[in-house]
Amino acid sequence: FVILKWAMTLDGKIATRTGESKWITSAEARAHVHKVRGEVDAVLVGIGTVLADDPELTCRLPEGGRNPKRVVLDSRARIPMTSKLVKTARQTEVIVATTSAALAAKIADLRHAGCSVIVANGPASKVDLAVLLTELGRRQMTNVLVEGGSEVIGAFLDAKLADRVMAFIAPILVGDAHAKPPAVGRVVPSLADALRLTDVQVTRFGEDMLVEGSL
Description:
Elements: E1 2-9, H1 27-37, E2 42-46, H2 47-53, E3 69-73, H3 84-87, E4 94-98, H4 104-112, E5 116-119, H5 129-138, E6 144-146, H6 150-158, E7 164-170, E8 198-205, E9 208-214
Parallel strand pairs: 1-6, 1-7, 2-3, 2-6, 3-4, 4-5
Antiparallel strand pairs: 7-9, 8-9
């Protein structure tokens, strides 16, 4: 079961053109995300998010919570050995999903640091998402929260591998055509070709709205 999650401005941007995204949403919305992290088996992000934000992807709540496994889509194994994810891999599992384009020496270094590495070769030297999800399921990770970035979310949508969407909307405007949207992927020539959510729910968190539904 794959959940796509993003936080965006009222005009549909998840970051400025320079990549700044902290923080679009309120503390209340972010607390709910941590709650959801504690309920899923794994959190997945792309290497772009790791390089830009150096996230921990843990469940940080006052009352504590169970940390999910952390999965990084990284076709060339560019994740820094000094990143928070690699440095905490022995405390909470980190899985680097890569391809044969990655250097064997880097894969060995990651494994030595405590990371698991899955090689899933897909078209155009990208990670094969279907193969990856099958392997995660084999490892008892059946609920995955995908937190971005936009190319990763777009890839899951294009591959029809997403089951649910959680979109946080903050009452701020960026107004920049070059700021980053939530999903980058297929061309939609008409609204008839657009994806539409079902069983839609809307919840307020502070000044923000959470729109969620099934795909």
